[in-house]
Design a protein that fits this description.
The complex is a heterodimer of chains A (133) and B (137). With 133 residues, chain A is of the alpha+beta class. Helix content of chain A is 35%, strand content 28%. Chain A has four helices and five strands. In chain A, helix 1 runs antiparallel to helix 3 and helix 3 packs antiparallel against helix 4. Chain B has 137 residues and is of the alpha+beta class. Chain B has four helices and seven strands; from the N terminus they run βααββαββαββ. In chain B, strand 4 and strand 5 form a beta hairpin. Chain B is globular and about 40 Å long. The interface between A and B is medium-sized, with 35 and 33 residues. Strand 1 of chain A pairs antiparallel with strand 1 of chain B.
């Protein structure tokens, strides 16, 4: 299924705000419930932050891609990068709360690689209405 | 998992967007351009001009898109922003430009842009790209 929104931009801290602001359009155009929209923006922000902080070696800049697809009463968002993949990092500058936080506000979350094994993906599914299963 | 290719590889200061024709086109485009310009310290009058351009593009671009999607690339370079509207059908940019004429006001895209040009691609399916540039001091 072709995504409804595809965004590609350099993986920089300043660009996280661009993505977060763009997702506000869901509330504007589709009247998504405020709490659900807040969850979507929180999870997408966390996933993008993970890309900016962890995906590429220090001093190297790579790509941040976000794909969002509307599927009936759900929204599937894939945040991906061209880094080596998700793994344990003893020197991580964060508290390690990003993925648990994402899991707490999504219906489901999957970590993996894309079909061509070229990109690392975080795939998040959100209900778009409070009553969705 | 999905491996949908992104149409435009972003350069150092660019954001590539590909949007399905529908209610999200305008709000997403406007929000991305707004944020990019705010980050570039764009004065409010030019920010307002850019929002009017986005509204006009969101209203008229879907009619000239090739496959139900429209592609935009937003590039900031110093004191200017370039907005590239891509994946348009043959003559799509020309028709899009014609559609943006408002009676009594003139052509919104031409009046608000400092530079405007159309590029054609002859490889594969004939396609056009509309390129708008706004300067700000």
């Amino acid at each position: 299924m072709t995504p409804d929104i595809e965004l590609a931009l350099p993986a920089r801290a300043a660009n996280i705000a661009v993505v977060r602001h763009a997702f506000g359009a869901l509330g504007e155009a589709l009247a998504v419930d405020e709490q659900i929209l807040s969850n979507i923006r929180l999870a997408v922000t966390e996933a993008c932050t993970n890309v900016v902080v962890h995906a590429y070696p220090d001093g190297e800049e790579g790509q941040l891609e976000i794909l969002a697809t509307l599927q009936e009463e759900k929204l599937v968002v894939v945040v991906r990068d061209e880094g080596p993949g998700i793994g344990p990092r003893p020197d991580s500058p964060g508290l390690g709360l990003g993925l648990p936080l994402i899991a707490s506000v999504t219906e489901s979350v999957q970590l993996g690689r894309d079909d061509g094994d070229e990109r690392t993906e975080v795939r998040m599914t959100f209900p778009l209405s409070s009553g969705a299963p | 998992m999905t491996s949908t290719p992104t149409q435009n590889e972003p350069g150092e200061n660019s954001v590539s967007l590909r949007l399905a024709n529908g209610p999200l086109t305008g709000p997403v485009l406007s929000r991305v351009v707004e944020m990019v310009l705010a980050r570039a310290d764009c004065p409010v009058n030019r920010l307002n001009d850019a929002m009017i351009l986005c509204d006009a593009l969101a209203a008229h671009t879907p009619a000239h898109a090739n496959d139900g999607h429209v592609a935009f690339t937003v590039v900031t370079d110093g004191r200017e922003i370039q907005l590239r509207v891509g994946e348009l059908s043959e003559q799509g940019a020309t028709k899009l430009l014609a559609d943006a004429a408002v009676p009594g006001i003139g052509n919104v895209l031409e009046r608000l842009s400092d530079e405007l040009r159309i590029e054609s691609s002859s490889t594969g399916h004939p396609r056009e790209e509309l390129i708008l540039t706004l300067h700000f001091d």
